[in-house]
Amino acid sequence: QDAIDRKEKRSETFKTAVHGLETGPPAMKTEELGRRAPQWVRDNLVTMCMRCKEPFNPLVRRRHHCRACGYVVCARCSDYRAELQYDGNRPNRVCQECYIFLTGHVVLEEREGRHKGILEKGAAEVSGRSLLCSSLQLLDKNGKGGTRGWFVIPQDDPLVLYIYAAPQDVRAHTSIPLLGYQVKDLAQGDNRHLFQLSQSGQVYTFLADTQELKQRWLRTMARSAAGITHQEEEEEEDDS
């Protein structure tokens, strides 16, 4: 079963990398909230609440779905009830934002206006406007294990690599400024598609699922590391 799960995950990752981001449901229009059943975001696409950004865990912070927008949220952020037209106007569990919209009630703990930090850019939103995004594995110093996540270089922030735990997370857990790094293609061994970023003793080793995906990351990272932020600049460099 583990082997089957790994194969399916690799297949999904490759399709996403080649054909574009297809991991999230279509966004629901505001006027449709409560009138039409939402398409739920899949549990395995998020590791944190899509509203408060707190990480999920199996004991005290479990996953729930808002019946109005379909987001995956924690118990605290979905501790509201609102009548939904598509369900015969019966009260359903909804998130705080949908509750405010559907009922018009004011929630005292509302967190509107809080400044978004540099890492608080949703993965789906950033991936939709990215130079490149896909699943990769960031290996540990021994090169034997590491963390698998969703990696994105945004179009509006092309000199930074953002790392998410999952493709629908609403907050990146870390970022790597790419400017000045050396990008290196490592020799293929045991059918592993490896490449590195290195600068002043700091080394990051990545594992891609396919050779094609690795080459795409090498090209994109090399442009970012050189400070090339637009296609036009790259063409000028080639002409010179």
Automatic annotation (TrEMBL):
<keyword id="KW-0863">Zinc-finger</keyword>
<feature type="domain" description="FYVE-type">
    <location>
        <begin position="43"/>
        <end position="103"/>
    </location>
</feature>
<dbReference type="InterPro" id="IPR001849">
    <property type="entry name" value="PH_domain"/>
</dbReference>
<dbReference type="InterPro" id="IPR011011">
    <property type="entry name" value="Znf_FYVE_PHD"/>
</dbReference>
<dbReference type="InterPro" id="IPR013083">
    <property type="entry name" value="Znf_RING/FYVE/PHD"/>
</dbReference>
<dbReference type="GO" id="GO:0007010">
    <property type="term" value="P:cytoskeleton organization"/>
</dbReference>
<keyword id="KW-0344">Guanine-nucleotide releasing factor</keyword>
<dbReference type="GO" id="GO:0005856">
    <property type="term" value="C:cytoskeleton"/>
</dbReference>
<feature type="domain" description="PH">
    <location>
        <begin position="129"/>
        <end position="226"/>
    </location>
</feature>
<dbReference type="InterPro" id="IPR000306">
    <property type="entry name" value="Znf_FYVE"/>
</dbReference>
<keyword id="KW-0206">Cytoskeleton</keyword>
<dbReference type="GO" id="GO:0008270">
    <property type="term" value="F:zinc ion binding"/>
</dbReference>
<dbReference type="InterPro" id="IPR011993">
    <property type="entry name" value="PH-like_dom_sf"/>
</dbReference>
<keyword id="KW-0597">Phosphoprotein</keyword>
<dbReference type="InterPro" id="IPR051092">
    <property type="entry name" value="FYVE_RhoGEF_PH"/>
</dbReference>
<dbReference type="Pfam" id="PF01363">
    <property type="entry name" value="FYVE"/>
</dbReference>
<protein>
    <submittedName>
        <fullName>FGD2 protein</fullName>
    </submittedName>
</protein>
<dbReference type="GO" id="GO:0046847">
    <property type="term" value="P:filopodium assembly"/>
</dbReference>
<dbReference type="InterPro" id="IPR017455">
    <property type="entry name" value="Znf_FYVE-rel"/>
</dbReference>
<keyword id="KW-0963">Cytoplasm</keyword>
<dbReference type="GO" id="GO:0005085">
    <property type="term" value="F:guanyl-nucleotide exchange factor activity"/>
</dbReference>
<dbReference type="GO" id="GO:0005737">
    <property type="term" value="C:cytoplasm"/>
</dbReference>
<dbReference type="Pfam" id="PF00169">
    <property type="entry name" value="PH"/>
</dbReference>
<keyword id="KW-0479">Metal-binding</keyword>
<keyword id="KW-0677">Repeat</keyword>
<keyword id="KW-0862">Zinc</keyword>
